[in-house]
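Sat 14:20. Reprocessing the chain from the morning session after the first attempt stalled halfway. Input below, unchanged.
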Amino acid sequence: MNMYSFYKKTVSLAVAATVIFGTAESTHAASFSGNTDTTLATVSTTSTNAIPKDLAQKLQSTLDKTIKDKGIPGVAVGITSPEGTWFGASGVSNLATGTLVRPEDKFPIGSTTKPFTAATVLLLAEEGKLSLEDTLDKWLPASIVNNITDGKNITIRQLLNGTSGIYDFLNRDEALIQAEILKNPTKQWSPEELVAYAYGKERQPWEYPSTGIILAGMIVEKATGSTFAEVLRSRILDRLGMNNTFFAPQEQIPGGYVNGYLDYDNNGTLDDVTGVNLSFGWTAGAIVSNTQDLTKFAQALFGGELLSPDSLNQMLNLVDIGVGDSFKYGLGLTSREFEGIGRAWGHRGDAIGHGSQWWYFPELGVTYVNLQNSQPQSDDILSSMLKTLLAEELKRVPESSFSGGLIMLGAAGFFFKRKRPLHNMKSS
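Finished this time. Tokens:
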């Protein structure tokens, strides 16, 4: 039996114990009825207990070794698991000064902004301020809608899950956009300038939704008469006590954030690109946050404390994008299979000189966040950290004595869910 299979078996036993005996700790769980691409889901309140000291030391050693081996300047990591919570950091936030990264440091999170935008839209839908079935022409001016192929028939839902097929300028024009940004790094980009890159371009059956989610952010402002930053703060950030999260194009960031590095001239040396204005990502990629706040967001979102069960179910209604079960897309959210670890819901993000990983592993009850200050990023940090975590947790839960596993995992609030067929949400 491999590590992941054994861990799943232990979790399944914990589920049975929870159903039969209940838990001593009150948990807030959401019921899912849509296709979330897994047969078992777990939701737990945010753990405030630190993980055991020996495990913390192993995680720190793993993190130190990984960033040294990969040549990454600095990283902050946050992990919550049935054994508790760990926030750590390694490396430096500034290569010139050698300032060490701290666990609480802020980083640009790139496309991990997308789940925030989608959740904001879903909250406005709950309030009746808009509907996911509203088309672009209900909210946006003809000067935008008429320049997007078949724009009058594109819905907000399609903007969020990529089935609008609108041209993604951040990926398809990556070299062009990056060159433009680095040529004028302090430029404040408007959302209108960004979506104009998609004008007249052919729509695809599915397209990564950077442009679509920027359009969704514009609709949020139109529907509320407020800035996106104000809506995000009132609906999510203040509500969850996320005091270290900011929408960079419209808010000042107290204390700034860690320096970002990229070898943009390909000479083998990392260049400091911290001065780049993050507005080029707008509501698809311009939030700044830290590991503690992103952990709060994951726990509240997947724990049913932020959205209604129906809204969360819609967010997790995953679209088959044509690459198999390893990667699917929901509303501003992905479902991804990590080899040797398992399936997760969440997102990864790349800003210029920074990268983020933000995941919830429903079958393991694990929330994982890492933020780094260089590009390109890979999954090496996530893979090494979670394999260290799971290997150590398994040592504490021998297969011959599953009662310990029931005690350890039963408080995580596990529940069963019926799996339904995936709805065909692709655009024509």
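The chain has 16 helices and 16 strands.
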